[in-house]
Every structure is written in structure tokens, then in C-alpha cells.
Amino acid sequence: MEKKLKLALLSCLIVVPLFLKAYADELTIAYVNMERVIREAPAAINASKKMEQEFEGRRQDLQRIADDIASRQAALAEKGASLSDSQRRAKEEELAAISVRFQRRQQEFQEDLNIRKNSEASSLLDKANKAIAQIADAEHLDMIFQEAVAVSNRLDITDKVIKKLTAN
Q1: Predicted confidence (pLDDT) per residue in 126-162, tens digit
Q2: How far apart are CA 58 and CA 109, in angstroms?
Q3: Which of 75, 94, 101, 168 is such that its CA lies 20 to 30 A from the CA of 152?
Q4: How far apart are CA 65 and CA 39, in angstroms?
Q5: Tell me: the pLDDT tens digits for 42-52?
Q6: Which pLDDT band holds residue 21 (cuts at 50, 70, 90)?
Q7: What pTM does this model have?
Q8: Partner residues linked to 31 by β-bridges
Q9: What is the SS3 assignment for the chain?
Q10: Distance CA 23, CA 21 (A)
């Protein structure tokens, strides 16, 4: 029994590489650097600029509030010793309430920004995947990798994908 198992394993070790070699001659593969596509595609650049404009007003409002909190803290630190205990506590409570509201608004802003970024990234990935599929069909590619440890430049079709996205 053990002899048959060894013979079967030896047969596999000999035959499988031969089949892989025969198929590898026909197999066409490519690689796409999706990070670069997302960074350099015109749609990504336009979406980034659009989001910056869309969120700039809220970002400036948050900055004004942060500056106001900082100036109130500085004023309280400077004049706190001259205020009565009740006045100082009232100012501290007011500052704490403003800080809590600010943190909530800042968190809402960050959540809205992340939702928008994810939406834009999803849209771009859909477009990129369609472009990749079109290139794969046109060039009769069997397999396209999006992640790899090492890639030859001759397999990299990232520029083609970016050009295809630019044309669309």
C-alpha cells in the first residue's frame, strides 16, 4: 500500500509540472496597480477636487470653532485667577459644553467625509474594473492580478487602464 502511494506521488510530481508547462505557454497574464489607478485616474483627481470644494465650508467652520475654543481657553487661563469661583466654574462649564459640541460636529464631519470618499472610491473601482475587463477581452488576457509581490514591466497594464479611464 505504501509503495503504491509513493508511486502515485512520484507520478504526480513528474506529470503535473509537464501539464503546467504546456498550459503556461498559452496562458496570458497581466498586472494592474490599482493604487496608482486610483491616485492618477482623471476621475479620481476630479472627485478629490470636488470633495475638497464640497467640504471646505464645513472644514473652515470647524477651524473657526477650534480657534474660538483655543482663545477661550487662553483667556480663562490668563484671567481665571481674577474671577470668582462661580464665574470660573461657569466659564469652564461653558467651554466644556462648546468643546463637546465641537467634537460631535468634528466627528459628524469626518463620518460624512469618509462616506463620500468610500462612495467615490467605489464608483471609481467599478469604472476601473470595467476598463480592465475591456482590456482583457481586447488583448485576450486569461488572468489579471491586482496584487503581486514582484511584477515585470512587460506585464503591467496600469497605463492602459488609466488611458482607458481618461477616454471614458
Answers
A1: 999 999 999 999 999 999 998 888 888 899 999 999 9
A2: 7
A3: 168
A4: 32
A5: 888 898 999 99
A6: low
A7: 0.67
A8: 145, 156
A9: CHHHHHHHHHHHHHHHHHHHHHHHCCCCEEECCHHHHHHHCHHHHHHHHHHHHHHHHHHHHHHHHHHHHHHHHHHHHHHHHHCCHHHHHHHHHHHHHHHHHHHHHHHHHHHHHHHHHHHHHHHHHHHHHHHHHHHHHHCCCCEEECCCCCCCHHHECHHHHHHHHHHC
A10: 5
CATH topology of domain 2-167: Protein Binding, DinI Protein; Chain A (3.30.910)
Which residue carries 462616506 as its cell?
A: 115
Cell of 143: 488572468
User: How far is 99 from 102, CA to CA, in rounded Å?
Assistant: 5
